[in-house]
Amino acid sequence: MAGKSLLSLFAVLLWSPKVLCYVEDLDDTFKEKRMDEVWLVEFYAPWCGYCKKLEPVWYEVGAELKSSGSLINVGKMDATAFSSVASEFGVRGYPTIKLLKGDLAYNYKGPRTKEDIIEFANRVAGPVVRALPSRQMFEGVLNRHSVLFVYIGGDSPLKEKYIEVASEMIVYTYFFSALEDALPTNVTLQELPSVAVFKDRTYFLYDAYQDGELSSWVNRERFRGYLHIDGFTLYELGETGKLVAIAVVDEKNLTEESVRLKTLIQRVATEYRDHFSRDFQFGHMDGNDYINSLIMGEVPVPSIIVLNTSNDQYFLLGEPVKTLDQLVQFIHSVLDGSAQAQGGDGIFQRIKRVAFDARSTVMSVFRSSPLLGCFLFGLPLGVISLMCYGICTAESDDGTEELDLLKREALPEEDEYEDRRREGEEEEEEERQEEKSAADKKVD
């Protein structure tokens, strides 16, 4: 991936200045001129690796929007150099992509690909609610979009609420309005006005009594019933409050068991929609690397796992899934709380997460660059070892010096004792000599 990114960047650098000028470098004067135009802006930091990876894609976005005749201006701003402007727009990480339209600022949270960014920009830059005046246009929109919401009817309090919700959720999906005579022939309404979501080759009507707030219903229904799930999608699914049932497979080496598990998940999503769509999202994920990092464990491939992204819990079957009824029963047990939950966000799991992330970081560095890993982690360990050795050696020397000092202090006492002993012996010798002299005199 890194090599591909470098090649893309090299290709961008070879482009003509005309192509590069489609992306404008912005400064603090940008605040004054942005109000009358629509801007798609990347806030970046020069040291950010993700920003460098996005750079060639960003120039491609600018070139394609300009060549298509779009009125959207594309720019980039060094958020570290113009931190006050970045703070005003609520930039807290890099890169941050925002579409600015008048007083409104819309955050982009999807995959950082040219196609996804352009689709987001064109959707948000246009009207919040687009009109569908004819059946032909309605059917054309259905063919272009996998999920779309439609308000059907004239002016009403429901329409006002619909426009309000659309202004908040336009970053995720499309919103349209139509009269009843523009609907496809297979659409039947129970009442007017109505709000419908069209997806999965069918449609579903909003029921205020059963579905609650319109905004909550839109948030739950903005995904297709069955998805190819990746990291970005799973992050967005977390905002819906749904549990996510995933078939973990290896798409590069699809086995019969992998295909069977994917089919079972798809069948549950379709055949049991009325039972589970409010609480579950269904899909499959290619590979288990991302799941393993979430649960800090190893998920076998293929297998089925249910994730609760709100509290980091997950559920696994204790035995292989053989039938559709077995899978449905397992999902029911997760929903009613009888299934055993693993993981969570308790204090033990948080400590485990810190240790797991640290270990993953170290392993990632060593895998990508063993020499760099040895330098980053070996050098500090070497320094710490030398410090420990120095401390231990210093303590040993201090002890030796104290012993020498005690010896030196003890030496004068020993010398003094020796001198007294010698004096005593000399005195005794003198006394013996005197006694001997006295005895000799008596003899004489």
Automatic annotation (TrEMBL):
<dbReference type="Pfam" id="PF00085">
    <property type="entry name" value="Thioredoxin"/>
</dbReference>
<dbReference type="InterPro" id="IPR036249">
    <property type="entry name" value="Thioredoxin-like_sf"/>
</dbReference>
<keyword id="KW-1133">Transmembrane helix</keyword>
<keyword id="KW-0472">Membrane</keyword>
<keyword id="KW-0732">Signal</keyword>
<feature type="signal peptide">
    <location>
        <begin position="1"/>
        <end position="21"/>
    </location>
</feature>
<feature type="domain" description="Thioredoxin">
    <location>
        <begin position="1"/>
        <end position="126"/>
    </location>
</feature>
<dbReference type="InterPro" id="IPR052250">
    <property type="entry name" value="PDI_TMX3"/>
</dbReference>
<comment type="similarity">
    <text>Belongs to the protein disulfide isomerase family.</text>
</comment>
<feature type="compositionally biased region" description="Basic and acidic residues">
    <location>
        <begin position="433"/>
        <end position="444"/>
    </location>
</feature>
<keyword id="KW-0256">Endoplasmic reticulum</keyword>
<dbReference type="GO" id="GO:0005789">
    <property type="term" value="C:endoplasmic reticulum membrane"/>
</dbReference>
<dbReference type="InterPro" id="IPR017937">
    <property type="entry name" value="Thioredoxin_CS"/>
</dbReference>
<keyword id="KW-0676">Redox-active center</keyword>
<keyword id="KW-0413">Isomerase</keyword>
<keyword id="KW-1015">Disulfide bond</keyword>
<dbReference type="Pfam" id="PF13848">
    <property type="entry name" value="Thioredoxin_6"/>
</dbReference>
<dbReference type="InterPro" id="IPR013766">
    <property type="entry name" value="Thioredoxin_domain"/>
</dbReference>
<dbReference type="GO" id="GO:0009986">
    <property type="term" value="C:cell surface"/>
</dbReference>
<keyword id="KW-0812">Transmembrane</keyword>
<protein>
    <recommendedName>
        <fullName>Protein disulfide-isomerase TMX3</fullName>
        <ecNumber>5.3.4.1</ecNumber>
    </recommendedName>
</protein>
<comment type="function">
    <text>Probable disulfide isomerase, which participates in the folding of proteins containing disulfide bonds. May act as a dithiol oxidase. Acts as a regulator of endoplasmic reticulum-mitochondria contact sites via its ability to regulate redox signals.</text>
</comment>
<keyword id="KW-0325">Glycoprotein</keyword>
<feature type="region of interest" description="Disordered">
    <location>
        <begin position="403"/>
        <end position="444"/>
    </location>
</feature>
<dbReference type="GO" id="GO:0003756">
    <property type="term" value="F:protein disulfide isomerase activity"/>
</dbReference>
